[in-house]
């Protein structure tokens, strides 16, 4: 099980050696944040403007909505770990390019291995497609998926829409709130499977 210091060292090591082209335009890398022993890891897409400035994932409007959803299932930021597939902000919040995702992939995988969660929750299609390249988020959101992936400590994944998408679409907000309620149920199911 990782400690806060072990994760910090991991992040600093990868930040120094990372070859992602976004490094040139970003203010700083945005390390994952939260409980190093979390049962649930949330994986987003890439840092936005606020994240780039503060160096913490999900601190803008999408982050506030995420906090609200966590509260709705009796969880807090301190209970979970949150990160992004790309560690640097893409210019003008554009989608990350495949080469940028690829450059950050070993970093993400090391981070997931260190935390060792029971469940990985994808926030949006970019993080989901990194692990499930052929799936459509509209078809699988809110469904617990199982797949063994080399180097990833869990085989359980739950894709959700990205909180930012829900900020612009009221219907999606309700759907995301509904899907979020499945997180405790997924953890319960995983625990029952292992016992």
Which percent range describes the beta-strand content? 5-15%
Structural class computed from helices and strand pairing:
alpha/beta
- Count of domains: 1
What is the CATH T-level topology? Uracil-DNA Glycosylase, subunit E
Unreliably modeled segments: none
| Total beta strand runs | 6
Please list the strands of the largest sheet in the order they lie side by side.
1-3-2-4-6-5
> What's the story with the biggest beta sheet?
6 strands, mixed
Secondary-structure element order, N to C: HEEHHEHEHHEEHHH
Q: What level of helicity do the residues show?
A: 40-55%
Supply the CATH architecture: 3-Layer(aba) Sandwich
The N- to C-terminal Cα distance equals 20 Å
CATH class: Alpha Beta
What is the name of the CATH superfamily? Answer: Uracil-DNA glycosylase-like domain
Structure description:
It is a single chain. The chain has 195 residues and is an alpha/beta fold. The chain is built from nine helices and six strands, in the order H-E-E-H-H-E-H-E-H-H-E-E-H-H-H. It has a single domain (4-185), classed as Uracil-DNA Glycosylase, subunit E (3-Layer(aba) Sandwich). The model has no long low-confidence stretch (mean pLDDT 94).
Quick summary of this structure?
This protein has helices at 4-17, 49-54, 61-72, 98-115, 125-131, 137-140, 163-168, 170-180, 182-194, and strands at 33-34, 40-44, 81-84, 119-123, 145-146, 156-160. The protein contains nine helices and six strands.
């Amino acid at each position: 099980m990782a400690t806060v210091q072990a994760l910090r060292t991991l992040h600093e090591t990868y930040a120094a050696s990372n070859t992602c082209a976004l490094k040139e335009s970003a203010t700083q890398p945005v390390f994952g944040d939260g409980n190093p022993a979390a049962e649930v890891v949330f994986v987003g897409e890439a840092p936005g403007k606020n994240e780039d400035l503060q160096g913490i994932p999900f601190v803008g409007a999408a982050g506030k909505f995420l906090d609200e959803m966590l509260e709705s299932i009796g969880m807090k930021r301190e209970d979970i770990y949150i990160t992004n597939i790309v560690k640097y902000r893409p210019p003008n919040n554009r989608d990350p390019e495949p080469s940028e995702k690829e450059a950050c992939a070993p970093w993400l995988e090391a981070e997931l291995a260190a935390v060792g969660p029971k469940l990985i929750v994808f926030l949006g299609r970019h993080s989901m497609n990194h692990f499930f390249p052929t799936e459509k988020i509209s078809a699988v959101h809110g469904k617990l998926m199982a797949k063994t992936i080399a180097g990833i400590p869990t085989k359980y994944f739950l894709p959700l829409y990205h909180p930012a998408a829900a900020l612009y679409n009221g219907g999606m907000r309700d759907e995301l709130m509904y899907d979020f309620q499945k997180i405790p149920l997924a953890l319960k199911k995983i625990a029952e499977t292992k016992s």
